[in-house]
Predict the structure.
Amino acid sequence: MAHHRRTRAEINLKAFKHNLQNLKTALGSKTEIMAVVKADAYGHGALPCAKTAIESGVGYLGAGVIEEGIELRKNGIKDPVLILGGIFADEVADLVHHNLSTILSTSHLAEALSREGKKQGKTVNIHIKIDTGMNRLGVYPEDLLALTEKIGSLPNLKIEALSTHFSSADDEDLSITNQQIELFKKALNKLTNAGIIPSLTHLSNTSAIFRFPESHSKMVRPGLILYGALPSPILNSVVQNFCKNENLKNFEPVMQWKSRIILLKSVQKGQALSYSRKYFTQKDSRIATIPIGYADGLSRRLSNNMEVLVKGKRVPQVGTICMDMSLIDVSEVPDVQMGDEVVIFGKQGEEVIQVEELAQKANTLPYEILCNVGKRVPRIYQN
Ligand SMILES: *Cc1c(COP(=O)(O)O)cnc(C)c1O
């Protein structure tokens, strides 16, 4: 199929590799990387990204749900995979069969995993998660020893790691994360004193990696930075300084989202554009239709509130974004033609639109913009 005609996401795996390498250099040899490839690698394609990560020497992958882990296994990935979102007790057979690891917060799941491990003749790797303030998954620190005692009494289980997750690593206020790090340290001490020494410890997401180096410990769990985006504007200067101090090149965006002009027309002054007449031309205008809409993941909330690139120039999106189409005003672009490339985010000529900009305009995070790039948008890999 010719993917060149319409909307596509270009994925630069070289940039992905570069970002991984950058991070590795910065972390040094004491801290390993678990590459988080959940949600189809934040929309970039779980399999190509996982393979690239492994080629680059990453020894652990993070999936969101068990289906994602199984998908990796079915495509020949044999390296360790952690199911970050945990599993239901009725999913243990699949987990054990596919040699996946899971985070664990309850003795109920520990019992189910132990039984299944015994049945399949395997030892199951578990990553105990402690809840240090997210109040989502995890066991509270005061209940940790009761859980590990229970686990100790069960066969076919191995505590491979102790982990936690930060709620506020990209917040202005650093105190919450510092507190979480302290709680984690205390819990690890308790465990060590009880004679349990997990070979891995991991706490840090992207924001924590850059803002809380003391949280690195034995392994970190970067997601967004591998795709070359930043969780919040707070990270801008932090990451820039980080790269400067470590003598690293900047992290590079991996995805560019592009479309093409399918129709170009002259619209007279005072005409309403698209559904519900939310936009009127202020003058005689050149209006282009592009085949990208909210069914492709371009949020309708961005209607009349975003720009795209045409011939290296920023032009406004105009009128309500439809399911399959949107309109842009190209009046200010000379020599524009049907078939011309339109960049939603990415680079064109000297001009760049970052996914962070789109996120800010949509009042959301780069995570959501990337994850929402739809299934019907073909990913074109550039290597
Ligand atoms: C998604 C996720 C990460 C990665 O977060 P980023 O901010 O993308 O680096 C790390 N840990 C857990 C538990 C996650 O769910």
The longest helix spans residues 175-193. The pocket of pyridoxal-5'-phosphate is lined by residues 36, 38, 84, 165, 205-206, 221-224, 231 (CB under 6 Å).
